[in-house]
Amino acid sequence: SLRDVRSATNALSRRAEEGGRRWEAASLALRAAAAASQQERGEMALYLAEATRVESMLLAAGLPGAPFVTAHELAGDLWLQVHQFADARAAYERAAARAGRTPRILLGLARAAAGLHDVPAACAAYRSLFEWWNAARRSAAPPEIAAAHARAESLGCGQAGR
Predict the structure, then answer these.
(1) Which of 118, 89, 119 is nearest to 106 (CA)?
(2) pTM, full prediction
(3) What confidence tens digit (pLDDT) does each residue in 108-147 have?
(4) Dihedral of CA 134/138/139/142: which sign?
(5) In whole angstroms, what is the distance from residue 74 CA to residue 144 CA?
(6) SS3 assignment, position 160
(7) Average pLDDT for residues 51-57, to the nearest whole number?
């Protein structure tokens, strides 16, 4: 079932060999996702460490990181997926330091804090997410925002951002 993933990682690796370090970060991140899908936390951690290291070098040089989603954000997502909430929080904090507190990172921080039963931090992150959404709203809330509202309310965060 991972044949297509292996094919994609090999294609990304070939692009990296042509001088595209951002594709190297993407290949490593995809390998980490494959490891996470197999509950291989140790292997996932190694790939994530290398992907974020490569991406950090790129960003420090003023170059773009991994395409589509940064390796730093993906690290948080994958740690959430395997229920390692402290690692997820740390990864999202590192992502925020590099990319700013984007809506995706805010949602990840809220989810990680909720997983750690840190209700004040979860509520603060949800509030920041809702403030961003209310300021940027152009249409009806997507399912992620509606789910975030429901989760915030279930944590006792109140009607923040509605």
Answers:
(1) 89
(2) 0.84
(3) 999 999 999 999 999 999 999 999 998 887 677 888 899 9
(4) negative
(5) 17
(6) coil
(7) 93
